[in-house]
Design goal:
Rossmann fold; UDP-galactose 4-epimerase, domain 1; 40% helix; 337 residues; alpha/beta; 17% strand; 4-stranded mixed β-sheet
């Protein structure tokens, strides 16, 4: 039986990847999380986890080498999706050392644990970097291809440069089948409320429910983004490791619809039942430096795998807003962020 390890299974991407693999493969899934990780995103999988029905959790921490070695020994994975990270760019400005340790050294610790369990056939490993590695890009370099110069604009982005390079290093130095991806903006249901489009959707849902005055607070609205759906992203990750995987390769992955954060917000507002919502800039939501042009060239990955995004921007945003409407309606109480 094929065995797969997903680090960060409780995150937005990890939980959707688990859903995809359960629905489209017969693989057994081992999901890494910390003992204190919120289980909200995989609540619907808990009955299967309790029954050990093709999915179970392993508690490990990227900052603890012993736990990672024990995790790898238990899981004995044929495939690894390394998604776990300190993933919030804004948080990285106030917690840079935690971000660098978790994302750079954590990746090295994990790959070293996997190296100790190498077999003749694997495992095949996906290391998830980020489009944030490109940072501040000039207009003449759009769309961004894989050879664009790195110019990271946050401690998070710097940590993902390290993640990217460590993955490629292990492929070259130890003949491990490691591939790295630079996924551009991807969102959808279960997106954390520290990210722009998700906090906008959450605020709209709270305003509609009468839990917040009709004032929506924002940060920088001028950044240009290319939007993809998380469900297209996890399908891409599956194809990455199953369609002629090439050790040491690195790919941009992303959507095809580009617009500013301002235009994205206007689309979400157009979906609201409230037409009196006022938008205000909140200085606390502004980053010291921002990656303001994020438009990918995904031709390399598409040519290699045949992948292309299928879910339109409008559905992604409608599903995200409905996700928050459901959570608000359930009676949950949320911080104002």
């Amino acid at each position: 039986m094929t065995r797969v390890l997903i680090t960060g299974i409780t995150g937005m991407v990890g939980s959707h990847l688990a859903d995809f693999l359960l629905d489209n493969t017969d693989w057994d899934i081992w999901g890494q999380c910390r003992w204190r990780s919120p289980l909200d995103n995989i609540r619907h999988l808990v009955p299967r986890i309790n029954a050990k029905d093709r999915i179970q959790l392993i508690y490990a921490d990227l900052r603890d080498s012993i736990s990672l070695r024990e995790m790898v020994e238990k899981a004995k994975p044929d495939y690894v999706f390394h998604l776990a990270a300190q993933s919030y760019p804004t948080t990285s400005f106030s917690s840079p050392l935690d971000t660098l340790d978790t994302n750079i050294l954590g990746t090295a610790r994990l790959l070293d644990a996997l190296r100790s369990q190498l077999t003749a056939t694997g495992p095949i490993i996906h290391v998830c970097a980020s489009s944030e590695v490109f940072g501040r890009v000039s207009h003449d370099k759009l769309p961004i291809n894989e050879e664009c110069t790195f110019h990271p604009a946050s401690p998070y982005a710097i940590s993902k440069v390290g993640t990217d390079l460590i993955g490629r290093y292990y492929a070259e130095a130890y003949s491990m089948t490691v591939m790295t991806t630079r996924m551009f903006t991807h969102t959808g249901p279960r997106r954390g409320d520290v990210f722009a489009e998700s906090t906008f959707a959450k605020q709209i849902a709270m305003i509609e429910a009468g839990l917040q005055p009709p004032i929506l607070k924002t940060g920088n609205l001028d950044s240009l983004r290319t939007w993809a759906d998380v469900r297209d992203a996890v399908r891409a990750y599956y194809m990455l490791v199953t369609v002629n995987p090439m050790a040491g390769e690195y790919y941009n992955i992303g959507g095809t619809y580009s617009c500013s954060v301002r235009d994205m917000l206007q689309h979400l507002l157009s979906l609201s039942t409230r037409k009196d919502i006022r938008v205000e800039t909140d200085p606390e939501r502004l980053r010291p430096v921002d990656a303001d042009l994020q438009v990918p060239d995904t031709g390399k990955f598409s040519r290699h795998t045949g992948w292309k995004p299928e879910i339109p921007f409008e559905k992604t945003m409608a599903d995200l807003l409905d996700y928050w409407r459901g959570r608000v309606a359930s009676g949950e109480i949320f911080p104002n962020r």
